[in-house]
Structures are given as C-alpha cells and as structure tokens.
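re: ur question from earlier - yeah i can do the single chain one, its not a big deal. heres the input i used so u can compare w yours
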Amino acid sequence: MTIREGERRSRQRHQSDPIHDRDLTLHRVLGFAEWCALAGISAATARRLIRRGLGPPIVRLSDRRIGIRVSDYVCWLAARSR
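and the output i got, formated as tokens:
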C-alpha cells in the first residue's frame, strides 16, 4: 500500500456519515437553559409547562438536573404549531 492509498483510506474512515450524524443530533439532550433559549421562553414558563404536563418529555440527568432530547423538542414544537 502506498502512502496515498493509506491517506485515502484514513479519510474514508474518518468521513462523517450524514445519516449517523443526524441520528445523533436528534438524540442529543439539551440542557434546560439551552432548551429555554432555543424555544424562546423563560425558565419560569418552561417549568410551568413541564409541571402541567404541557412541555416535551424530560430526561432526568441527575437529582437536580433535567434535559430535553432534541427529537422530543421537535415533536413537541410540531404539535404546538398545528
């Protein structure tokens, strides 16, 4: 194998797979503050929506920390847009 062939194989291994990247992006968990900023709502409104069961499903990250999966946020937003 020449150096050029080795470089090409290395690039092929490290190229990102757009389908895989998209799946990872949808499963990414947003922090609470990040979700509030993305949704354009205050933290108080976000807490109220979640407490009343009107927000997206949450992911419990620890005893004191929650997050929202990107895919759940997208579905929640689509449902509210109708």
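The mean pLDDT is 84. not sure if urs matches, ping me
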